[in-house]
Amino acid sequence: MPLLFFLLILIILAIFIVTAIFGRLWCGWTCPQTVFLHAVFNKIEKLILGPYTKRVIFFNSDESFSKKIKTLWVYLIFFFICWGLAHSLVAYFLGAHAVRSAILDGPTQHLTVFLPLMLMTVALFLNFTFFREKLCFYVCPYGRFQNALLDINSLGVYYDARRGEPRGKLGPAQLEKKGSCVDCFRCVSVCPTKIDIREGFQLECIACGKCIDACDEVMVKTKQPKGLLKYETANLQPVNLKRFRLALYTVLFLIFSGGLAWSLNERAALVINISRAPQNSFSVRIENNKKIYQNQIVIHLKNESSVAQSIAIELDANSIAKSFQLISPATQLVLGAGEEIRAIAFITNSEEESAQSGQEIKIIFKSNLNTIEQSIRFIGID
Ligand code: SF4
Ligand code: SF4
Q1: Ligand nearest to the CA of 203
Q2: Which of 185, 190, 221, 242 could form a disulfide linkage to 214, CB 3.0–4.6 angstroms apart?
Q3: Which of 178, 182, 229 to mutate to test the pocket of ligand 1 (most atoms within 8 A of CB)?
Q4: What is the CA(218)–ligand 1 centre distance, in A?
């Protein structure tokens, strides 16, 4: 838990730092939603239905048989990809082996795997087919936080209005106005979130830079300098790294990095959990006309290190001196990296004067990496 806590805080702080400097770089270039939508789904749509303007005409056209067939074709491919994605996501958590067995045994045998798979496939299909960028606007918490994370020193995509205005279509009228923007709307048509960046910075902008490329092409064609749309700061100055918010985020990042290093250092290579057996945790048996008082316990061991550990389990000298004994088939064992074991063990005592309830028994776990001591109270004669 401490590891997870520090790791999550560090990820959040890293996002704050990157956003304060580079703007929505994550959204436009690395977010799986953007990457899959633009690198996979949009590409397929473009391949089958043509470029954006053709697609708009296609979707707004009257219903026809060929329109239905083409749409169905696109949806089928989308569904198949989402189905593959869902399998890969579930396999990431359960393991590929578990997913393969679930497929081979059939859905009725593994409803707990099959239902999440189907739900995820449908959710991904609806998202990538219909919801799309709306997820960035209405669902993604990072998108909603942009107001607080960005300032005028953060990089973003901006329109140089001083150079572009007054805008106008190519022709004598535009030449008279002398604004560089030829009002071709290329920047709007390529924009995945369909905003007009010329109206100023908008939170819907995911900084993908498509409008910059499109506008540069227009500038080349109209024999004007590139850079009417640019990736720059709102105040048109070089990025200022000496900012209070950046200093604060960095200090917090260093503090929490220290916390992560500390919790990594403190992390036990061997996780030990001793509990009483749910049944027969205390019993008395007769052996050679002598009463033997015994406690049944369960020892759970997990090797959290990346190497195998040979483990010896024994009682401490004080407990042995009081005639306590540890009986278990697992007093000597080897646990591979990441392996765990749950073993039954008995703590016994045949001496009435020492087999009293409440005695503290210390169990020592000696491994090639470290030695750990754990205690348990004996249940015996009251
Ligand atoms: S692509 Fe460039 S020239 Fe065309 S409308 Fe957009 S900003 Fe103006
Ligand atoms: S305005 Fe430009 S950078 Fe922003 S989302 Fe649209 S195309 Fe991408």
Answers
A1: 2
A2: 190
A3: 182
A4: 7
- Is 94 domain-assigned? yes
How many Å is the maximal CA-CA distance in the chain?
117
Residue 257 included in any domain: no
Sign of the CA dihedral 331, 334, 335, 340? negative
* Closest listed ligand to the CA of 190: 2
pLDDT in tens, 11-38: 999 989 999 998 888 888 888 998 999 8
Q: pLDDT of 325-376, one tens digit each?
A: 999 988 999 999 989 999 999 999 998 888 888 989 999 999 998 899 999 9
In a domain, 326, yes or no: yes
For 160, list phi and psi in degrees, rounded to 5.
-85, 90
Spans of the chain below 50 pLDDT: none
Structure tokens at 47: 């391949």
pLDDT, position 176: 63
Number of structural domains the chain divides into? 3
CA 66 / ligand 2 centre spacing (Å)? 33
Ligand at minimal distance from the CA of 168 is: 1
221 lies in the same domain as 275:
no
Q: Nearest residue CA, atom 4 of ligand 2?
A: 205
**Same domain assignment for residues 228 and 283:** no
Q: Which of 272, 274, 291, 300 is closest to 348 using CA atoms?
A: 291
**Structural domain for 353, as ranges:** 270-377
Pocket flag, ligand 1, residue 157 (CB < 6 Å): no
Does residue 62 sit in the same domain as residue 130? Answer: yes
